[in-house]
Each structure stands twice: as structure tokens, then as C-alpha cells.
Amino acid sequence: MEDLFSSVNIDADIDVNSLSEDDAKVKIDSLRKEIEHHTYLYYAQDKPEISDGAYDSLMRSLRKLEDAFPQFQDANSPTMRVGGYVGEAFAPVQHQVKMYSLDNAMDLNELDDWMKKVEDEFGEFVPLMCELKIDGSSIALTYENGQLVRAATRGDGTTGEDVTANMRTVRDVPLKLRAENLEGTIELRGEVYMPKQSFETLNEAAVAEGNQKFANPRNAAAGSIRQKDPTITKNRDLATFIYAIADVEPVSSEVQSQESLLNWLKSSGFHVNPDVKLCTNRDEVKQFCKDAIEKRDKLPYEIDGVVVKVNDFNKQNLMGFTSRAPKWAIAFKFPPEEKATLLKDITVQVGRTGVLTPVAELEPVSLAGTIVSRATLHNLDEVRRKDVRIGDTVIVHKAGDIIPEVVGPIMSARPDDAKIWEMPTTCPSCGSEVVKDPDGVAIRCVSAECPKQIHERFVHWVSRKALDIDGMGTEIISGLIESGLVHDVADIYKLTEGEIASLSRGRQNVEGEDIRVGHTIAGKLITAIEDSKKQSFARVLHGLGIRNVGENAAELLVQHYPVFEELEKASTDDLSKIEGIGPIMAENIHSFFKNVQNLDLIHRLQTAGLCFDDRERISEAQSGDQPLAGNTYVLTGTLVESGLSRDEAGAKLKALGAKVSSSVSSKTTAVIAGEAAGSKLTKAQELGIQILTEQDFLNLIK
Ligand code: AMP
Engineering a disulfide at 680: which of 104, 215, 242, 636 sits with its beta carbon 3.0 to 4.6 angstroms away? Predict the structure, then answer.
């Protein structure tokens, strides 16, 4: 400590000009070391030994020296936590080891079921590590020879974004690992989050500056690491909790379990969440979850559940992964949060098929991290069943923390003048009469000219899962419809750049002139429109918006009828024979293609060059040698001879067209039993399923 304070004084006294190059190098090195040490104490240990002011003073001294002796600049110096500007967009990063999601247990019973499954797998309870599920953004940090070289977001799990410059500004991320002599590449994973307090401050500042608020700390964290200017990220006060390693190999002598990994991470300088417990029975795990719910509000950061992981890495390997998530871990999700708030009004939304949906307009309330001011009431029956009235205080909750829903009114708080709501008898958009579906609860506007329906049909057509026309937002759609340039989606393909460029955005500048779309955006939009012609027939079919036909049903239909002309001819009977297409949907599809207006639209889309034939796409997907297609295998035990993990063995089977399942049933073709095979082998014997040895398996994949 004595030494330290003499260093702190450098700032005031240092005369950089009088220093020789050698002396400067010595001082720079010692300052860097010192600062890293205090960063570690402050962030990883929560035990700072010097004041913030003293820390800043050290930093200023280092900066002064580095400015005077630029030959000693180093990308990993603590002063470099603010990098240069990140390019136009973030470079893609291919994850060498996939970044998985987690399967969820929505309550303690589901958690118990998962724990029983793990127990069955090993024939006994295996120790489970419980960790808090931090509600931030997933991050991967790659170190080469101990130096931070890359930080990447999870992205889609396979490809993330390179956010290195921004993550360097996050002060608890070590730029250098503390472990000595660590050669090669090592990738650590965790969560970057924004503490609740910093989130509040950020939003207060946003309001003061007239900017939009962030909905929750998770969005704020994710948004902050994707800033083009790292100085913004730096000022966002982010922090991390690191809890995983992509490939344990380089440290496998010290780390063989989640518990030893967490210890290793701590000693390497990472910030590790202290709230963990290695549990030795199911009750302990459940108690940890209950305690986490209790302490949730008191923690300085948001959590949305508990992650339970098989502790032993060998056992994790035996269990393997599904395509989405590890089988050796589960996220216990907290029950949805509920809050009481005032129901100020009930308004009506008109959807693309004309359905009128009542929407609760609420006094804004903060729920599970987001501000909720509207919630769907689904339909009139639902409003009656729940007996919600305008002026009521209602309970709002979030199902799975995503969609807000009105649970019902608090009767004791109902004011005398609470108003019973009535569904309008005419469409709020076009004034036409509305009718109730004969076969359901929906009330619809059936006018073909209803502007809201037309607008929503465009919104659906351009949406990501349909034709994915990037940049055609609601403003532009409204402009196109109002200017009479488009009447239906086929008209999109006749638009010129000039027509789009001169569209009004529906807003005015300070001089009171209309703001136009302009040529830059129009040019991009024309390219996106052109690109949409390459989308599959399945997407076009989804985009047409046939009632009840979503993304999956559209795919099912083209698998059976890959060419439009065949689909058009299919009878209701033919269609309902397809597994997954019910009689009502079949009827809707059939009558859609009987309608002359729809056929005319399709004809114009065909002329415009959209795809109505998926034969090539389907045969490409099916090509490749698939001798095991139609067979389902279950792997159990360890494959000793080949040394293949279950994941690797499964991948080989799948490459030959087989399905690999984790449980034995009458549909299983055969069980491949390695050494120490457990309950799955017994079950296969009971069911009389064929059992293959490892040698049989190796012959099979030859
Ligand atoms: P989800 O995004 O809901 O699929 O949940 C999976 C995500 O939870 C992971 O990708 C991590 O980003 C995050 N997570 C937060 N805390 C933990 C933890 N302690 N262990 C594993 N994953 C965690």
C-alpha cells in the first residue's frame, strides 16, 4: 500500500520530459500492473483498496506517460479500454463452439421432472450447480496467450457480432488473464449486464434529454455493447458475470467441473457471481430457487431465473446437447410477475383478416423489467368472461415474461362508475358493418376496401418471416397506400425509385415542409423488393395471409404441393389428409384459391417474378446420401472403442439421414449401447427394441 500511494502522487509530480526512455518504460509497466490489480480488486473481488479518485489519478498518470512515449502504446493497456470507432456494422464472428440457449422449466414441478431424468440417466442423484440466471446479454471473450483478442455476442448461436472494441471498455473484463503462461486460445462465456441503479440513471438522463427510454436493463445492456462509438459503451456502466468456457481442454488439468471452473475463473481475474450453490439433493436445488425468488428484488442486478447445471464435466459430455440447448442444464424461470393498474380504456385493433381485437389501455406499470401500457384482451367473450370494465383496477401479468395479459379486475376496488365495454357494431377503420364468425368468437370487418386491413396485409407481406422486405416500415406503407401507388401487394413490384423517394413520411420539418423518403432509402428499398423475388414459394404462401395459414402450415403445404398449380387444384379432402392441416384450415385454403380476386393477385405476382415453385429447393434439401432416413436411434452409455462422444456419434447418424432421440419408445429403431449403459438399455429390452453394440454402430455408419 505504501508503494501504491507514492504511485498515486505521480500525477501531480511527474515531469515526463525529464524521464529517460528506459525509466518511462519501467514506470509505464508498473502503473499498468497496479491499475490492473485495482481493477481486479474492485470488480472481481468487490474489495477495493483505494478510492475512485486515487484510481483515476493512477490512470491519468499512465495516460500522460503513454502520450509522451507513444512507442510504448499497447492495445491491452488499461488506458485503451476505449478503442477507436467500430466500422459501419459489426463484423460477423463464427463461433468455433456453438453458443447454446437453455431449456426452460416453468415451475418447480418441471424442474423436478428434469432432475429425475438426470437421475435416471446416471442411476443416482448427481451433484447439481445452481447459479442465478443473469438477465443481460450473452458474451464470448477470447484470449490468445492470455491477452483479450475478441469479444462476440451470441447472435444466432453460430454467428455473433464482433464487439471487441466495446467490451474492452467494460471495466471488469480482464484485458489480460491473471493466470501465468497460458498459451493458445481460450474462450470464456458469460453475461454482460447493466446494474439496476445504472439503468435508472441512464433512463433519467434519456428523459431529461428528450430521448427514448430503454425498456429494461437487458435491452440497455444489449444496446450498449452494440454502440458504434465505444465511448458511449464506456459511459454506460456495464458489468459482467462469467460462468462458462467454450472448450475446457487448455485448462483441463485444473478444471473438471462447473465448481472448479468458477474457482478458476475467479482466480483468473473474472467477475464470478458469488450466489452459487453445489446441491447434493433435489430439495436443496428447489430451496435455492425459492430463495432466489425471494431475493430477486433486493439484488442490484436483474435476474430472470436460476440455471441448474450437472456439475461434473464428464457427465455433461455423456448427456450432450440438443440442437438448441445442453441436456445437462436447465433454466428454472421465475413465475410471471403480476401488478395492479388502472384500466383507462378499451380500444379496438383491426387485423389483416379483419378481426377486431379489444386492447386494454393501461396506466403504465413496470412489470418484469418492462413498462406495460397496453395488453390484448383477445375478444369480446374474453372481456365478458373476465368481467373487466373501464375504470377497474386490473391485475396484469406477463406470460413467460413476454406478452402482457390482463388477468382480471380487483372487484373490491371497482368504482361505481366503472363502464361495461361494448364491441363497436361498425369497423373503427372504415365504418363498415362487422359480423361475427359463424364458427367462432371472432368479430370481423368483412369489407374488402377496409384501409386498416389493407395496411396490415402489407405489413404481413413485408415481415421477416414472409417476404422479408427490409426497410418497408409502416410509415412507408401508409405513404404508398395513401398516395394510391399501391392497392395490393403485387403493386409493390411495379414501384420505381423515384416514386418511393418522393413519398411523404407523414411528418414535417421545422419549416413546415413535408419530410420525403429520399433517394438513399428508396434505392435500398428497391434492392430489398428485388431480393424478395428470390424468397421461396413457402414464404410467398405465408405472405398471402390465408386465414390460419402460418409459417409452418405454409411449409407443410409446399412439401406436399411444391408447385402452385397443384396446390390450387387440391380439394378440401386432399388438403386435410396432410398431417398438421385440420379441416377448417383446409376449407380456408380451398376457398382462398377459388376466389377470383385472389387468383388475379397470384397471377400478377407470378408475372412480377415471385416464386411459386419450390421443387428445386425441396429436392436440394433432400439430396445427399441418406441411407438411414426414416430410422430413429437412441444412444446410451460410453462409446469406448471409437472414443466418440454421444454428440459426435449422433451427428454421424444424422448425416446419414437418421433421427437421434434421447428417449426410448416404440418408435425407436434401435438402441446403441456403449459401456455402462443405463436405464435406456433396460427400457429397450423391455420393449423388445433392437440393441446394437458399438461395433454394430461402427459398421452401420461405414
Ligand atoms: P435463453 O436466452 O432464455 O435461452 O437463456 C439462455 C441464456 O441465459 C444463455 O445464453 C445465457 O446468456 C443466459 N444466462 C444467464 N445466466 C446464466 C448462467 N448462470 N448460466 C448459463 N446461462 C446463463
Answer: 636
Q: How far apart are CA 465 and CA 467, in angstroms?
A: 7
DSSP H or E run through 342: strand 338-350
Taking alpha carbons only, the member of 80, 71, 70, 72 closest to residue 39 is 80
Cβ–ligand 1 contact at 134 (below 6 Å): yes
Cα–Cα distance for residue pair 513/498, rounded to 1 Å: 19
What is the C-alpha separation between 248 and 261, in angstroms, rounded? 9
Give the active site residue among 25, 27, 64, 133. Answer: 133
Tell me the C-alpha distance between 131 and 276, whole Å: 5
242 within ligand 1 shell (Cβ under 6 A): no
Which of 44-53, 268-277, 530-539, 613-622 is predicted least confidently?
44-53
Distance, CA of 615 to chain centre? 32
CA of 243 to the centre of ligand 1 (A): 10
Q: What is the DSSP string of 96-114?
A: SS------EE-SHHHHHHH
pLDDT at 215: 67
Please give the residue that has the higher pLDDT: either 303 or 440: 303
Dump pLDDT digits (tens) for 531-544: 999 999 999 999 99
Closest CA to 479 of 510, 533, 518: 518
Q: What number is the average pLDDT over the span 233-247?
A: 94
Nearest-CA residue for atom 14 of ligand 1: 133
Residue 169 φ/ψ region, left for φ over 0, alpha for ψ in the -120 to 50 degree band, beta for the rest: alpha
102 lines ligand 1 (CB under 6 A): yes
Backbone angles phi and psi of 376, in degrees to 5: -75, 145
What residue type is assigned to position 466 of the chain?
A
Complete DSSP assignment for 547-577: TT--HHHHHHHHHH--BHHHHHH--HHHHHT
**Burial of residue 601, with CB atoms counted within 10 A of its CB: 0-12 exposed, 13-18 middle, 19 or more buried:** middle
Top mutation candidate among 134, 242, 310 for ligand 1, by most atoms within 8 Å of CB: 134
- Decide if 133 is catalytic: yes
CA angle 324, 327, 328 (to 5 degrees): 135
Q: Which of 68, 66, 57, 49 is nearest to 12 (CA)?
A: 57
Kindly report the pTM of this predicted structure.
0.51
What letter would DSSP give residue 170?
S
DSSP 638: B
Which grid cell is 310? 450437472
204 and 261 Cβ atoms separated by less than 8 Å: no
The three-state (H, E, C) secondary structure of 268-331, written as one string: CCCCCCCCCEEECCHHHHHHHHHHHHHHHHHCCCCEEEEEEEECEHHHHHHHCECCCCECCEEE
Cα of 262 from ligand 1 centre, angstroms? 15
Is the distance from the beta carbon of residue 243 to the nearest atom of ligand 1 less than 6 Å? yes
DSSP strand pairing (128-134 vs 277-279): antiparallel
Instruction: Tell me, using a 6 A CB cutoff, whether residue 133 lines ligand 1.
Output: yes
| Ligand 1 neighbour 307 (Cβ under 6 A) | yes
Supply the residue whose CA is at minimum distance from atom 11 of ligand 1.
138
Q: How far apart are CA 272 and CA 361, in angstroms?
A: 42
Q: Which residue's alpha carbon is nearest to atom 20 within ligand 1?
A: 307
